Amino acid sequence: MLLKAFAEIPARKRIGIIAVILGIISIFAGNPNDNVNTKVNLKELSLISPDQISEIGVSELADWIIKGKFDYRLIDLRNEEDFVKYRIPSSENIQVTSLLKSDLSRNNKILLYSDNDITSSQGWFLLKSNNYKSVNIIKGGIDSWKNEVLFPKCTCGENPTIEEQHKHNKLAEISKFFGGELQTYIAADNTEKVKMPELKAPATITLKKTTGKKKREGC
Amino acid sequence: MTAPLFKFGYFNDEVSLIVAFVIGIFFGLVLEKGGFGSARMLAAQFYFTDMRVFKVMFTAIVTAMIGLFYFSWVGVLDLSLVYFGETFLLPQLLGGLILGVGFVIGGYCPGTSAVAISTGRIDAIFYALGGMFGIFVFGEMFPYITDFFYSTAMGKINLPELLDINYGLIMLVVILMAIGGFTAAEWAEKLMANKQSKARG
């Protein structure tokens, strides 16, 4: 009866009525952006083995930064205070709680680091369960960066071989690039005198971002 | 499969160009069929003589709005990934004003001028050339207007967030606005038609 009456109304008015009804329903439908509750594919996640979680070493990251390879987004998950004090060049500060609200795209190559691997793993899980394709963890986080890139220890003895000398020079150059210094043993004293690392603000390297050819969208 | 397909990495940059090309063809076709390729038809909107373009446009807005909302609601679309630009209140007000003046004088907006060029309209070719010259002038002027260009920045914000009200309520208001607008447009069309027939005697 009602349907018959509805069918008799002119088509344009019918469309109008349907639009209004959909509008009224939408008031009770909630916020479409609210994606706090997400469906996690438990099977898929549980089947991921540790070697599939791609970890990236700090020396590899340092290499990328030096070579100007910026096809990724480096995310610092620590708090703002620590981030302001020192950060890996080219990183941006997003905390785990706001990770999903950030402007990270699902097709971005994302590298996560923190001062502990648990926070990074937490971030990895959050992003991965929200269908982010390429999520990677910087192994050892900021501590590894400090110990292996900024203030690496030279393990070569008094008479280093050419190979050791080469490695030594490379380490020294890398740490210098990032404003750090190679830590050497002073053999004369026969005691280990390691200069206490002092973290400075990152050397002002202006990094040209080439992350995913940012397109201007819209008309 | 969840949309937007490109942002979820279902296809790469190269394929996205092909997708854009195909969608562009259909978009142009629909614009031309809707009367958007004619400067007279577009300018008629401002004189209330034929409101077809207004009706097509507003219908498209409402359809897209309802579609996006419900697709997102049932979970086949992540609305947070659908692009919209940042708001710079004053520069955009001024820009909109300039665009509107250009629109009513020239009879096209940038997109519709491209549609009109494809049907061989000479006025549209000149319109587009003028647009390109305008872009050049703007580029040259940019160092002097940078401050204004970035002023009154509000970031990425939409009405429900700004007013802190329900998404659905905004939708209902826009739908009612559209229906009201269509009714008013048809009333204005009749009024103008009467006026014109009287003027002709």
Task: Report on the architecture of this protein.
The complex is a heterodimer of chains A (219) and B (201). With 219 residues, chain A is an alpha/beta fold. Chain A folds into two domains: 1-30, no CATH class; 40-211, Rhodanese-like domain (Oxidized Rhodanese, domain 1, 3-Layer(aba) Sandwich), CATH 3.40.250.10. Helices cover 38% and strands 9% of the residues of chain A. In chain A, strands 1-5-4-2-3 form a five-stranded parallel beta sheet. In chain A, helix 5 (80-85) links the parallel strand 2 and strand 3 (91-93). The radius of gyration of chain A is 26 Å and the shape is elongated. With 201 residues, chain B is mainly α. Chain B has one domain (13-200). Chain B is built from eight helices and two strands; from the N terminus they run αααβαααβαα. A two-stranded antiparallel sheet of chain B has the order 1-2. In chain B, helix 1 packs across helix 5 (110-118) and helix 5 (110-118) packs antiparallel against helix 6. The radius of gyration of chain B is 20 Å and the shape is globular. The termini of chain B are far apart. The mean pLDDT of chain B is 88. The interface between A and B is medium-sized, with 27 and 36 residues.
